[in-house]
Design a protein that fits this description.
Layout lengths: L6 E6 L3 H12 L3 E6 L2 H10 L4 E4 L2 E2 L2 E2 H11 L5 E5 L4 H9 L4 E4 L6 H13 L6 H12 L1
Parallel strand pairs: 1-2, 1-3, 3-6, 6-7
Antiparallel strand pairs: 4-5
Amino acid sequence: MKTPGQFHVLYADDNEDACLMMSVLLELVNIEVVAAGTVAEAWRLSQTEHFDLYLLDVRFPDGDGLELCRRLHEDAPRTPIIFYSGDAYETDRQKGLAAGAVGYLTKPHINDLAEMILMAIRLSKRPATKNFGNSLSESQTRIG
């Protein structure tokens, strides 16, 4: 259950072990993780709960994480999205960022993930200004 001051993240990945590992890792830095194993479940959760960030894989048995990212970004444009995926080519990263993500990290690299998530959430909590989009664009280069 979410505690005051704790961030709330939706992690969408069809691998149950990855979801468990992510939950344990992020709880160490005061982030509550809600896991979804399908695109449909992730979308349903996004419509019924408020999340501070969406963390997505690209491949799902019932759909495409890139399309999910586009829908989430359209529905909640100020909620940051980060991909954590095994798709490791530069073109994969570019597709993720073009779909609306603010960062893209490849599996199994996990060392910078918690820091990337916290930075993206903090940037998204800043008051809306004309430069908000630029702040995220600059961070894409640093954290991608």
